[in-house]
Amino acid sequence: MARVIIHVDMDAFYSSVEQREDPKIRGLPVIVGADPKGGSGRGVVASCSYEARKYGLHSAMPISQAYKLCPDGIYLRPRFFLYERVSRDVMKVLKKYADRFEQVSIDEAFLDVSEKVKEFPDSEALAQKIKQEVYERERIICSIGVAPTKVVAKIATDMGKPNGLIVVEVGDVRRFLTPLSVSKIPGVGKKTQTILQNTRITKIEDLAKTSLQALTEKLGKHALWLHSAANGIDDSEVIGFWEPKSISSESTFEKDTDDVNELKRTIEELAEEVHRRATADNYLFKTIGLKVRFEGFETHTRAKSLTSYTDSKQIIIGNALTMLKEFEKRKKIRLLGVKVSALRKVEGAQKRLLAWMK
Predict the structure, then answer these.
(1) Annotated catalytic, 108?
(2) What residue spans define the domains of the chain?
(3) Mean pLDDT over residues 279-305, rounded?
(4) CA–CA separation, 146 and 155 (whole Å)
(5) Which CATH superfamily is domain 182-235 in?
(6) pLDDT, tens only, 225-256
C-alpha cells in the first residue's frame, strides 16, 4: 500500500487561541500583532482571524494598513508563551496518532500513519478523529490534508482551510493537482511564479508537462524538485523530529529613536523574551545575534559566537548591548531584534547538572 501522510495545520493559530481565551471576541475580526495606535502604529500583523481576513488583512501586513482596512477590529499584542504552551499540548495529541511525527512549525505538523490504517480510505476516519480530539481538548480548529506524499498533503490542507479535511488518494493525485495554480506548490514564491508565468506556465498541469531541461534553464537546480512535485512525485520522509534553528524576538519603536536608555531597555526586554522561550524548551545556545533597522529601513545584523553553550540571560544581554554600541548615535533606530542560535537541547540529568553548577 502507498504511504499515508497526514498534514495538520492549526487555522489562524494565534488569533484562534485568543478567541478561545476570551469568548466575547469569538466571531469578531481579531488581529494579533503590533499596536495600531489609531492608524499610526509600527510593526506588522502576526496573525488574524478569518473574520479579519474578509477585510483583506493577512499576516505580515503593516499594522497601519490593517487598521485602515479594519479600524473596528480587536487588536491584541502577541502572547507567545501562551501560544507555545497550546502548541505543545496540540502536538502531544498529534504524536500519539503517528507512526512517525514531524513538527514543522508552532502550528503545523506531518504524521506518517501508513502502519495505522489498513487501507487508504480508512485515513479519513482517522483524520476526523484527530480533528475532533484537538477541538475537544484545546477548543481550536485545524485543517487536515491526507495524501501519499508530504507535498500533496500540504496542498490539500491549504485548499481545505478553514476547518477542512481533504483526502487525495493515490489514483487521484494528478487529477487533484492539474487545475491548481503553480503558486499552490510549497516553496513557489513570487519570484519563481513570475519566472514561470513569463514562460506561460501558470498551472501545475503546465509545469508537469514542461520538459525538465527547459525548466532547468529557467530555474536551475530547483527545477528537478519542482517538476517532480508537479507530477505528484515526492519521496521525502516524515523525519521524526523538528528543532528550531534559532529563537528571536523583535520590537519596532513607535517613533524612530536614538535614545540610548530606551535602546538598552528594549534590548533587555527582548533578551528576556528570547531567554524565556529558550529555557522553556530546554535549549542552550552558543551564538547571540543583534538586528538593527535604521530609519529608511537600512538594516544591519551582527552575531557573536561563544566558546561554549550557555542558557544565561545576562550573557544574551551583555553581548547584545556590546554589539549595539557600534550603532549608537549613527542614525535614529526603527527596530531592534535579539536572537540566539546554534541551539542544543538538554534534558533530565544534564539539565539538573547545569542548574547545580550555577
Answers:
(1) yes
(2) 13-80, 182-235, 246-357
(3) 91
(4) 9
(5) 5' to 3' exonuclease, C-terminal subdomain (1.10.150.20)
(6) 999 999 999 988 998 755 678 999 988 887 88
Superfamily for the 246-357 domain: DNA polymerase, Y-family, little finger domain (3.30.1490.100)
- pTM for the model: 0.73
3-state secondary structure of 265: helix
CA 190 to CA 192: how far, in whole Å? 6
Residues 204-214: tens digit of each pLDDT:
999 999 999 99
Tell me the pairing of strands 74-76 and 333-341. Answer: unpaired
Express each pLDDT in 20-56 by its tens digit: 999 999 999 999 998 899 888 888 899 999 999 999 9
Task: Given CATH 3.40.1170.60, say whether it is the number of domain 13-80.
Answer: yes
Q: How far apart are CA 301 and CA 324, in angstroms?
A: 10
Annotated catalytic residue within 51, 102, 108, 138: 108
Q: What is the pLDDT of residues 261-273, one digit of tens each?
A: 999 999 999 999 9
